[in-house]
Amino acid sequence: MGLVGVVFSKIEARKTRRRMQQWHRDRAEDGKPPGGRRTFGWKEDRMTREPTEAKLLADAVEEFIAGRSLNSIVRDWQSIGVKTSTGRDWTTSSLKRLLQNPRLCGYRRIGNQLVHDDHGEPVVGAWEAIVTPEQWLAVDTLFRARAGHRVGRDGKPAETLPVDHREHRHLLSGILRCGKTKPDGTVCNAQLRVTRQRDCEQHIYACTTKGRGGCGGLGRRGDKVDEYITELVLAKLEQRQAVAKAAGPWPKEAELERIEGKLTTLTEQWKSDQITDDFFFTNVRDLEQQRTSLRNERARHAAVAERAATDTTDIRRRWHTPPEDGGLDISQKRAYVREALHAVVVLPVGKGNGSRGNFNPDLLVPVWREG
Questions:
Q1: Within the chain, which residue ranges are assigned CATH 3.90.1750.20?
Q2: What per-residue string of b and e applies to 179-208 under the rule 16 or more CB within 10 Å gives b?
Q3: Topology at the third CATH level for domain 27-145
Q4: What is the pLDDT of residue 162?
Q5: Which of 71, 162, 167, 244 has the most crowded CB, counting CB atoms within 10 A?
Q6: Is the predicted pLDDT of residue 149 greater than 60, yes or no?
Q7: What is the pTM of this model?
Q8: How many CA atoms lie within 13 A of 210 on its CB side?
């Protein structure tokens, strides 16, 4: 009887779990909000936006798409006393979970999949959305593409992300690279770090010592390098904005509509027993993969469009404004620099190129990202 009781208990537990899963799916398909405690951004009814919190979330989405780090946003929220819906301090992990939640734009997700209607379109909930679906899809694409890799301007994964979780005090720490040639003919390529010397009030970017993998034989005045690279990056952002605005609407919208139409027709034929199960499941998988690929591409295009909507004139103004007056902090500036540049190679002064005291911009070689 004991073993029989265990078997029946497991069967009943599975039934209960299936009923709960179906209950959640039914609520999602009906456009009802998820249960549980209040979510940050909405009032206790879980339907109406909470104005102050919703504004913070909308701004965070725009800034994240524009290249601002989660760390920087969280620090801002902590400095003005913003708390989670449970009264706790914000962390990068908690903010990331919230920005990844499709509820921001009115969608629901069960497991790792958005809830779709019979026509393959995401179900739109009855609660008030905080951002547009295009904005949330752009954020979701950036998060998924960042899984272990850097994200390019078009949202595609590029090289592996560096281990760089520290809060830097200087704009180009770890971005400048030593271009001095070693005795064996190879280029040093070590990251330049910040040092200070008694005879110079400004910080110095210098190559690390031989014991730390560098050559120790190159340095440059930091304020001059920061000023020059800043102008290059701002000009690059302005150029990209002009290109993105000229790109126009996404060119594959008709192709996506064609694939979605095929999926709808195939599903209707299967439901009415016009085609076999084997034919349906064999073909629907390929069509769904094509639809997912096209939707991701559309989301990347939307991310570019969102960034193009960012006024580079305002970025330039905020760049030179103190953070306490609404300007960009060092984390935000570094995000824009990394978005535009892989690295900057600093060439040695050498004979005929002047001295460290005479700044020569020709000795700085920017390595731009594509796009």
A1: 27-145
A2: bbeeeeeeebbbbbbbeeeeeeeebbbbbb
A3: Hect, E3 ligase catalytic domain fold (3.90.1750)
A4: 42
A5: 244
A6: no
A7: 0.53
A8: 3
